[in-house]
TrEMBL record:
Domain of life per record: Bacteria
Protein name, UniProt field: L-Ala-D/L-Glu epimerase
Length: 345
């Protein structure tokens, strides 16, 4: 599978960058960068999902000079190797994962361009028919916690299901309300994030409420302390990992094999590393579901397309981006989404 992708020929003549931004319900403005690769009359797009707005601005204003070294004829695999020789950050990278996000933006655009030039989509290349994509809307409950956000979605989209972020002020009653609603597929315990995206401190009682009152939900990213480990031990078959998984070494390094993992392609950086994780999960019988990075443009379509090929029936966190808007549109795609195709623009 990997070699089929890496051996695709690629003709790259020009690179463009374009800004995207969106105001979210919390008042935060999300910014990202569309990467457009052009060649042979075709276009392939990717999206840099780096969360640092200043780094996005620096890339948009000063990134093209270094990227010129990527122009030329080569395979997708050779393009990936060439990326290791190019300074992709005109300013300092916030962290190593920002580097992965930028690499993914360029590699996914290169793959889309190569597929379009070859007049094939990724599913056809791999001999897999994309399937309709089931998705869960990812959201928090606010402070103080309330089901109002979920009810707002359900009013417009009665079939909606959810991936809900744990909050520090959740009570047993909060979890009981979620159980009564019957629409939650995943609770993100946010135990692995730090700094800007840190979740609530690990609370064994909260973990107990979630595990016991929501017996059919996946329990994503717990922080394993002696107390939380004891609470979760009877439920470890429902523990799934997201923030811990960047590549195959992370999957191999888990202390016990999970039944399911959340894969965010941009975390892996290269296409080859992402596909290595997918192959390992398939060979080991580990279920997968897709994860989003608050993509605003082509990146969201691409993770939907990858979900359609590799894990269409999981609780994929790949809902159309409009679900993140301050004003909820009424004409967004419904779950399951018609299977999108991974190819050029």
């Amino acid at each position: 599978m990997i070699e089929r992708v890496l051996q695709l020929p690629l003709e790259l003549e020009r690179i463009d960058l374009a800004p995207l931004e969106m105001l979210t319900p919390s008042g935060w403005t999300r910014r990202s960068t569309v990467v457009r690769l052009r060649g042979g009359g075709a276009t392939g797009e990717g999206e840099d999902v780096t969360y640092d707005a200043a780094a996005q601005g620096t890339f948009q204003s000063g990134g093209l000079e270094a990227l010129g070294a990527l122009v030329g004829s080569r395979t997708v695999g050779e393009f990936s190797e060439r990326l290791t020789q190019v300074d992709l950050h005109p300013g300092p990278a916030r962290d190593q994962w920002s580097r992965h996000y930028r690499i993914w933006a360029l590699e996914s655009a290169a793959l889309a361009l190569a597929l379009t030039q070859a007049e094939v989509d990724l599913g056809q290349l791999l001999g897999r028919e994309p399937q309709p994509v089931r998705f869960a809307i990812s959201t928090g409950l606010g402070t103080p916690p309330s089901l109002a956000t979920l009810e707002r979605f359900l009013d417009a989209y009665p079939e909606a299901r959810f991936k809900v972020d744990l909050g520090a002020d959740w009570t047993r009653a909060t979890v009981a309300d979620l159980a009564a609603l019957g629409r939650v597929d995943v609770v993100d315990l946010k135990g692995l994030y730090r700094a800007d995206f840190a979740g609530p401190p690990a609370d064994a009682e909260q973990y107990r409420w979630v595990a016991e009152l929501l017996p059919d939900c996946w329990l994503e990213d717990p922080e394993l302390t002696p107390r939380t480990r004891a609470v979760l031990e009877p439920h470890m078959d429902r523990v799934t990992w997201d923030g811990a998984i960047h590549g195959l070494a992370d999957l191999d390094g888990l202390e016990r094999a999970p039944r399911c993992v959340n894969l965010k392609p941009s975390r892996s950086g290269t296409i080859a590393e992402y596909l290595r994780v997918v192959q390992a999960c398939e060979s080991r019988g580990i279920a997968m579901y897709g994860g989003g990075q608050f993509e605003l443009g082509p990146g969201r379509r691409q993770i939907q397309a990858l979900a359609a090929i590799f894990h269409p029936r999981g609780p994929n966190d790949v809902a159309p981006g409009g679900f993140n808007r301050a004003e909820l549109p009424r004409d967004l795609g419904r779950s399951p989404l018609a299977p999108p195709r991974f190819a050029g623009a």
